[in-house]
Specification:
Strand order of the largest sheet of chain B: 3-2-1-4-5-6
Number of strands of chain A: 11
Structural class of chain A: alpha/beta
Shape of chain A: globular
Number of helices of chain A: 13
Mean pLDDT of chain B: 90
Radius of gyration of chain B: 21 Å
Strand order of the largest sheet of chain A: 3-2-1-4-11-10-5-6-9-7-8
Structural class of chain B: alpha/beta
Helix content of chain B: 40-55%
Radius of gyration of chain A: 21 Å
Number of helices of chain B: 16
Oligomer: heterodimer
Distance between the termini of chain B: 70 Å
Largest sheet of chain B: 6 strands, parallel
Mean pLDDT of chain A: 90
Strand content of chain A: 15-25%
Strand content of chain B: 5-15%
Number of strands of chain B: 6
Distance between the termini of chain A: 50 Å
Chain lengths: ~350, ~350
Amino acid sequence: MPPPTIAFDAMGGEFAPTEIVRGAARLSLETDLDIILVGDAPRLAALLGGMRHNAERIALHHAPQWIRPEENAAEALDAKPDGSLLQAARLVASGQADALVTAGPTRALLLACDRTMRLLPGTEKAALAAVFPTELRRGEKDDPFSLVLDVGASLEASGADLVRFALMGASYARVISKNPVPRVALLSGGAELEWEHPAILAAHAHLERLAGIEYLGRIEGHLIPRGTADVVVTSGTVGAVVMRMLEGMAQTVLDLARYAYHERLSWRLGFTMVAGALQQLKRLTDWEEYGGAPLLGFDRVVIRADPRSGARAIANAGKVAAKAVAHQVPGAIADRLHLHAFGEGFERGRAAEG
Amino acid sequence: MEVRHVYRWDLDKTYLRTDFDTLRGLLRAAREKASAKVNVAGSRALVRALQERPGARVAIISGSPRQMRRKLEEKFRLDGVEIDELVLKPNVENIVRGRFRAIRDQVGYKLPALLEGRSRVPSTASETLFGDDAEADAFVYSLYADIVEHRISAAQLSPILELCGVYDDDAERALRFASNLPMGPPIERIFIHLDGYSPPARFEAYGRRVVPIYNYFQAAILLLLDGHIGPGAIVRLAVELTQGYGYSLVSLANSFQDLVRRGLARAEDLGAIRLAFEAHAALIEKLRPASEVVQAFVDRLKMVSGMKPARVRDEAPIDYLAILGREGPPNTWRRRRRPKPRRRDLPF
């Protein structure tokens, strides 16, 4: 089987195109993936010329326009039909590439996928996932992260949407982390049912009787870093807020440590003594190590890297994309959703008969 | 037949896949049988194609020790390649004479050897050179080319050799050959095989004559366009790369796109490749139907349509002293260390 072809939106991200090109160059030397860099080709070619890379594995696809984060996504996509993100999505949709990787704006990504790809049957909304490093490890691969979704693909989610997100996340965890029965939970504001959002209540009732996953029930935010659940399901707005807050807290801890390190000699000595352990912890919680997270629900593999991604994160996002292609993630999700829809129909039929 | 064109090849990492970066690799290269030596992908097919040209002469100048001559000659026999000249390095003599610097020295060994080789062919013979990015091939070959073309005088050469740390007797030999050399036609191209994936921009200082290539398919395209090899040769090379070395149609098409991006080939040059594939459809069938092969190339070209190729730099004389001032003596280029990681304020 030929290696997968990964299309990178080379112009998306805070450090694009330099870091995207560096990441792709790195990937071309470390793997046998075929890479297509979509963007301002003369600029990309000049950057590539100055770095070690394997030109046999990299093709450029010229896109003279690109979307900036401050632009209105829908208007920008209309105004820039040759934009790098849209072109990269087209390459994937047409089968010229197997997966799309971008560190560009979420909304624009969602719209670009919506315009070029198809939602899987049984899905009404795509969900953007994010990985969060956790205490507990899971699956055959001992993956030290849990999957949180949706973290910003849509503003609102109905109970049925949340159930589908749970199924999509569980399918992803099953094939990527080799976790046969992922533990799934709904992110909740608290234990009291009367204060719960109706969509969560509806999803909760549904998930409780769903086979094929281990549903843990509703969990609160503090349990995410503990790794209680392998898949944490929430609506886009809440997910985005939670993820940003968790990342911000991790950064604050590091900043405080940095401050303390400079403050007193005794503290500095203490930090130096535990440097090995702290380095291990940093490696484990380093988001660049995980590269990117999938946008689930479309019939193609789409990986979204953090907008702050550097070369290492981009290269790792490419590897995640290749893995998702190799394990046919959209197919696995489609199968699970199909099974679910069939079960639902069966249940409805039985209820009608009864 | 009179020699009309000389193809000078380096051996290790250019023709043969040799690991001389480690002691173990060096020992293995010295001990292994001729049949165990591995070619750089496509090198054998390309040399064989070049030899078919009337009046072609193939010369190899290698840093391998003279004691390996018999093994190397056997390897060429196994490859079906006829070598007209094989120059090897007198490493044992250098050690016996205490010339330890000469063991690593490239300029002091290769430049006089190249000039001596040049003195043995008619002054009208043109040349194409093949080297790699592991050591200082681009530097030595460019210097040689400038001497042949009389762009550098003996007086200009002397301080360059001094900065290179060349032994006095080697410098004297080089200067003697250089002074007596009749002016020849320009060295057409210097192909540098990017064995270590050096950034192509590293070679910009040497001008357009130096062509960094990722594989010999790229060299074959340019040699086809220059009229050195026939269409059958490029097809045979493509088939050898795909069937023997794990290349895919995509990697070949990417290689062509890379040449176009760097301004080394033009989009219209695809016409010559198309004709070659179509004329040898039976041969290329082993890979894919000719139309599919051509389509893969067309698709890759379409991706960069509308893109202006890299700007061709004005041909300025090469400033060897500036290169040496910037990068140090060539014998240090291979073992140059990577930059140290930046010190961080925290130990974690």
